[in-house]
Design goal:
By secondary structure, this protein is α+β, with helices and mostly antiparallel strands. It has 10 helices and 13 strands.
């Protein structure tokens, strides 16, 4: 959305919080949240502002309110994302943050940029602020996705091996998910939604933004989630980067493989839902992430799979 498309009363309320009239707005596009986002400038200051409503994006508004609560906790943390203020107006929620002079990381993840972001994450491991929920509060559906697919009589796209048999029996998918549920529990701060469009690349250190899913768990979850997007973009899974992450965080190869199984089931499950209003590309993104997770899982377990998904057959 453009700034001028927001209700006049809402724009006036933003100006009241800024303390002077808005003289320029640099709208920002992209991502998976329908609504307004942009740098809002007055004569004396600039803030990054985002807003959405029940009518525009009810799910997104819920996430904004979730992020509002999370950022009030993070304001006392070393990874404070620069939260300034937030308010509700009618059925809208508005959040404001310090404006960062940077751009989102490249979704193609050049190796030097990826290495720097991974170093940044490892250097800023910290205990989660009091009040943040556990990882399972947001990812319970992910850990339960294979069981949910098994219970859905309309699901007929189970991953197969190159002979047409099941890549894994259902109980093994479920067992891997439960392994991951336990392995990634913990008390460290997690972003839990780490992708290129949630990391700003600046002249200094990377800046992690969009903390709607901030929670507590095992810190290694964030770089592993990030590496799945890298695998989705690169021609081959980033095995070398994964090995470095597992060594840095002292985690096992089995933990990483179990989490890939979780991601494969979760993104498959989400990709089958109808597209949400205003976000026509979301399901395609989720299908790509599901395919990347399955391919990487098969590689790490020494399997070759032919997976019939969404009306097409792919071989990995």
């Amino acid at each position: 959305m453009e700034w001028d498309a927001l209700p006049g009363g809402l724009r006036r309320r933003v100006e009241e919080r800024l303390g002077s009239p808005v003289v320029r707005v640099d709208a920002i596009t992209g991502g998976f949240s329908a609504g307004f986002a942009g740098i809002v400038r007055t004569a004396g200051r600039s803030l990054f502002v985002k807003a959405t409503s029940e009518a525009v994006n009810s799910h997104g508004r819920g996430l904004y309110r979730q992020e509002w609560l999370a950022c009030e906790h993070l304001a006392r943390d070393a990874l404070d994302p620069g939260f300034a203020w937030a308010f509700d107006w009618d059925d809208w929620t508005v959040l404001a943050f310090r404006a960062v002079d940077g751009r989102i990381c490249s979704p193609e993840w050049p190796a030097g940029q990826l290495a720097e972001v991974l170093r940044h994450l490892a250097a800023h491991r910290t205990a989660a602020p009091t009040g943040l929920p556990p990882l399972d509060a947001y990812f319970g559906d992910a850990f339960a996705a294979w069981a949910a697919l098994d219970a859905d009589p309309s699901f007929d796209a189970w991953p197969t091996d190159d002979t047409g048999g099941a890549l894994l029996p259902v109980p093994e998918w479920v067992a891997l998910s439960e392994h991951a549920r336990g392995a990634f529990a913990g008390e460290e701060l997690l972003h839990a939604d780490l992708r290129a469009d949630n990391v700003l690349w600046t002249g200094g250190a990377p800046v992690v933004v969009d903390w709607a899913y901030a929670c507590r768990g095992a810190a290694v979850f964030d770089p592993l989630y990030l590496l799945l997007e890298v695998a989705c973009r690169w021609a081959a899974p980033p095995e070398e980067a994964l090995a470095g992450v597992l060594k840095e965080y002292g985690r096992s190869a089995e933990d990483a493989t179990a989490l890939l199984a979780v991601f494969a089931g979760w993104f498959t499950w989400m990709s089958r839902m109808p597209p949400p209003p205003g976000l026509p590309t979301l399901r395609a993104f989720q299908r790509g992430m599901a395919d990347a997770a399955l391919g990487w899982f098969a590689l790490r377990t020494g399997r070759t799979h032919g997976s019939r998904q969404h009306g097409r057959t792919t071989l990995t």
